[in-house]
Amino acid sequence: MRGARHAKWAACAAAVALAATACGGGGGGGEAGVVSASWGDPQNPLEPANTNEVQGGKVLEMLFRGLKRYNPKTGAAENMLAEKFETTDSQNFTVTVKNGWKFSNGEKVTAKSFVDAWNYAAHLKNKQKNAPFFGYIEGYDKVHPEQGAATAETLSGLKVTGENTFTVKLTQKFSTWPETLGYAAFAPLPQAFFDDHDGFLKTPVGNGPYTVKSYDKGSVMSLRKWADYPGTDKAQNEGVDLKVYSDYGTAYTDLTAGNLDLLDDVPAAQLKNVKNDLAGRYLNTPAGIIQTLSFPFYDEKWNKPGSEKLRKGLSMAINRAQITDTIFQKTRTPATDWTSPVLGVAGGYKAGLCGASCEYNAAEAKKLVAEGGGIPGGQMSISYNADTGSHKEWVDAVCNSINNALGNNKACVGNPIGTFADFRAQASTQKLPGPFRAGWQMDYPLIQNFLEPLYATDASSNDGKWSNKDFDRLLKEANAETETPKAVEKFQEAEKVVSDQMAAIPLWYQNGSAAYSERTSGVALNPFSIPVYNELKVN
Fold first, then answer.
1. N or C: fewer beta carbons within 10 Å in the chain?
2. Does the predicted model carry a pTM greater than 0.85?
3. pLDDT in tens, 332-343
């Protein structure tokens, strides 16, 4: 298996998007009607199929519209550019694209716009991070083989049959396949993308409510309302300036001074002040996000037989309740499984699945760490991106908790890495020297999305390279289920393997947060904790 697969019963798209905080610096006023918002440089240039982290995803949501779009209030997959999907067997689909849509450069959006984009995304030579999302389409094994070179240029399961129609043949029955198509990787692309790829990467051309005016990396990306946008979800503002911050403490200062309109990740140090400072202009809403501590299983020192005791001991050495109360002012909740309470029981959340391994117990922690062979080299460093104050505070608190439990004030230290982009580059190429911060932001409310992309062998977001045959087998069995309750039960069996091996340490469930200026209204976070930028208004 290569990358994350979609369960047949999935309700929405699986988007690989690690929960992240923003990066670089800036402030100051802007144009009339233009919202200024905090942001961080994305890891990669903004190709839809090569963006799998939150900062880039925020921009793609403004620039592109696909066949489906996830309702910003409910998360439900709703037709956007899709006129209809037709199938008689849940394996062969005919897709009809609506008339009247175009890209901001004037090109018409047609069936070919989708088929060309998907073929590009899937092909091995193009090295797109989200290529695995096309794995259910027939011919993927030829354009993106597990090993060796591609033996085909296009997916055999994709065929343009008319200006506004194309057919898709899947490798198996997948009745809810259309519901996955709201993910940005499935966005259409203009011919300009292929004719001048470098030019597109500098100034992406989409079919969404905004266009890119300019991008100064490390400073600001300026997006402006596209007056001719044909969709019903038109921008309610004149544009959005995404300002890059090297420290979210500075962003908070800019916000309170009136030099920033929207901050979508309030620094931990300001959580106790934000309501008073901003006269209640603050959102703190439950979100499908979990923060974890991942391990470098690619390093044999951390992947020896019996080292699950070491990982469980470290987990028991973390006083989650104290950290979430003091550092996060109860905007986080101690995690007791590897999913999110937002899922509910029907979606697969099972409170307490982690058991005693997620409960603070200094004596047992010290014992298990010793039985697991001790910390490799006698000291562990927790890597994190240093471009926001929040991570340093909680990493220091986690290390202090571990050090106190083990009776060794040098057992754990923080390892700050300059920017989010630098941190992700090292994490995704297995360059980090020890445990590292990780997070997952749900893409649909089912347990599968919290497990498969992160823990399946060679999955697209399995940065630590954990691998377990029993886990992989249970995933395949769950994916074969056509009924959600049965699939959830099987996925919980797979999650129990994650628990038994402590594939990653669950830390806490995270709320989405946002604070905004006096001149800003219409502020909302979608179910995935992303600001609904097109609904923002400024006076």
1. C
2. no
3. 999 999 999 888
